[in-house]
Amino acid sequence: MATVCIGIGSNLGDRAEIVRQAIESLRGLARVDASADEADGCRFVEGGVYETDPVGGPAGQDKYLNTAVRFETTLSPRQLIEQLLAIEQAAGRPQRSKRQVNGPRTLDLDLLLYDQQVIDEQGLTVPHPRMHEREFVLRPLCDVAGEMTHPLLGKTVHELFDDLKK
């Protein structure tokens, strides 16, 4: 089982409901292995939900709701990213080729960390390349994985958040 961290954001529609539904969908991914459930050690941890201003993109966007989750899964990084994209599309987010960069979105799911792996492939970069620069990512990630170490920067999520606040 791999320990993964996913960032969740929404600034269109019923943001709270969209985030709730995304968390439920992610809970299902934590149980891909039929023998894995919470009683057997598959831990699913939800962070706090924070309202944040949009970063970049067009002016006039609504505020985001952001959170993060940590769980264990048997999915490979590629399988996981494909599932995240499917969950986004089910929530009404257009395919990548039709998206506005940093534009408003019903749902944004980012694979932030996958164990201590470093992956740089087309359509899949882990750890997330800008997570250490974004308070809206690090704040909820501290709630669920504050002691996890960024595999490239060698700092814990808490240390990255503290550095950002300086």
Q: What this model shows, in words?
A:
With 166 residues, the protein is α+β, with helices and mostly antiparallel strands. It has one domain: 7,8-Dihydro-6-hydroxymethylpterin-pyrophosphokinase HPPK (Alpha-Beta Plaits), CATH 3.30.70.560. The chain has four helices and seven strands. Strands 1, 2, 3, 4 and 5 form a five-stranded antiparallel β-sheet that branches. It has a two-stranded antiparallel sheet with strand order 6-7. A hairpin with a 2-residue loop joins strand 6 and strand 7. Helix 1 runs antiparallel to helix 2 and helix 3 runs antiparallel to helix 4. About 6% of the residues have low confidence.
User: How many discrete domains?
Assistant: 1
Order of helices and strands: EHEEEHEEEHH
The first-to-last residue Cα distance is 36 Å
Q: What overall form do the CA principal axes indicate?
A: globular
**Uncertain ranges:** 32-41
For the CA atoms, what is the radius of gyration? 15 Å
In DSSP terms (H or I, runs of 4 or more residues), the helix count works out at 4
Question: Helicity range of the residues?
Answer: 25-40%
Share of residues in strands: 15-25%
Estimate the mean pLDDT confidence. Answer: 87
| Largest sheet features | 5 strands, antiparallel
CATH superfamily: 7,8-Dihydro-6-hydroxymethylpterin-pyrophosphokinase HPPK
Per DSSP E runs of 2 or more residues, the count of β-strands stands at: 7
CATH T-level topology: Alpha-Beta Plaits
Q: In terms of structural class, how would the helical and strand content be classed?
A: alpha+beta
